[in-house]
């Protein structure tokens, strides 16, 4: 039987990562968080102190290797998972992921993950660009206010105090940049199923996705 591919796309804070992890644990699928891969490139760009807005400063992309495996992201073999969630990386990731050379390389790496067996990949362009032939495409969304609320709660559990309005503005800015870029903008694929999680619990969203997978397996 060929490997089953689930593509989950959606904006920041729509619950993609938590839902994807739970669904994969339940089904034994391999989860690939493509946002973590773009974050790893952003970390490297910041380390090199390049002007992230200048496409001509990305020649370093030819020297790097990004691998996502077992919930961790490796940059040239080094596990950088602990360094990619800072607000500096978060707020620069949209600029870095607009660059064609960056996207071409990440999409190549992501397509290579098909060898991992049954996979669930989450991101912004998985159903539209990376795997247009995915067996199931889901577009997860929620209102910006709900997503900001979730981010604040998540930060609280990590011991980080955050200001709701600042997070809300950052989420809206990232939504705008991710959905207005020229290459692979965030958008729902024509054949993706829309799941609005605003009034759903994590468990309800998981059950819905498990049901959609089960219908197609
Ligand atoms: O999903 P996460 O918030 O970790 O993604 C970080 C950033 O990486 C996004 O804001 C987006 O700019 C970029 N990204 C992307 N394409 C993907 C996944 C993430 O452009 N497939």
UniProtKB/TrEMBL annotation:
Pfam family, one: Cytidylate_kin
Similarity remark: Belongs to the cytidylate kinase family. Type 1 subfamily.
Top-level taxon of the source organism: Bacteria
Chief subcellular location: cytoplasm
Alphabetical list of NCBIfam families matching this protein: cmk (TIGR00017)
Cross-referenced PANTHER family: CYTIDYLATE KINASE (PTHR21299:SF2), CYTIDYLATE KINASE/PANTOATE-BETA-ALANINE LIGASE (PTHR21299)
Keyword tags: ATP-binding, Cytoplasm, Kinase, Nucleotide-binding, Transferase
Residues bound to ATP: 10-18
Documented EC number(s): 2.7.4.25
UniProt subcellular location: Cytoplasm
Catalytic activity: CMP + ATP = CDP + ADP; dCMP + ATP = dCDP + ADP
Domain Cytidylate kinase: 6-214
Protein name in the entry: Cytidylate kinase
This protein's record includes keyword ATP-binding: yes
GO molecular function terms listed in the Swiss-Prot or TrEMBL record: ATP binding; CMP kinase activity; dCMP kinase activity
Keyword Transferase listed: yes
Gene3D superfamilies named among the record's database cross-references: P-loop containing nucleotide triphosphate hydrolases
Cellular component terms per the entry's GO annotation: cytosol
UniProt GO BP: nucleobase-containing small molecule interconversion; pyrimidine nucleotide metabolic process
């Amino acid at each position: 039987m060929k490997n089953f591919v689930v593509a989950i796309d959606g904006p920041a804070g729509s619950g993609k990562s938590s839902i994807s992890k739970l669904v994969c644990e339940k089904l034994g699928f391999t989860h690939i968080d493509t946002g973590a891969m773009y974050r790893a490139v952003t970390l490297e760009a910041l380390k090199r102190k390049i002007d992230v807005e200048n496409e001509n400063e990305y020649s370093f992309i030819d020297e790097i290797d990004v691998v996502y495996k077992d919930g961790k992201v490796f940059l040239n073999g080094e596990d950088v998972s602990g360094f990619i969630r800072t607000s500096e990386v978060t707020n620069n990731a949209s600029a870095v992921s607009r660059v064609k050379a960056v996207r071409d390389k990440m999409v190549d790496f992501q397509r290579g993950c098909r060898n991992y067996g049954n996979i669930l990949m989450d991101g912004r362009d998985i159903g539209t660009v990376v795997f247009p032939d995915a067996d199931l495409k889901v577009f997860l969304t929620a209102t910006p206010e709900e997503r900001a609320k979730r981010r604040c709660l998540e930060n609280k559990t990590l011991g980080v105090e955050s200001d709701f309005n600042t997070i809300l503005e950052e989420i809206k800015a990232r939504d705008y940049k991710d959905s207005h870029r020229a290459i692979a903008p965030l958008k729902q694929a024509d054949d993706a199923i829309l799941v609005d999680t605003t009034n759903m619990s994590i468990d309800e969203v998981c059950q819905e996705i498990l049901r959609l997978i089960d219908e197609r397996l």
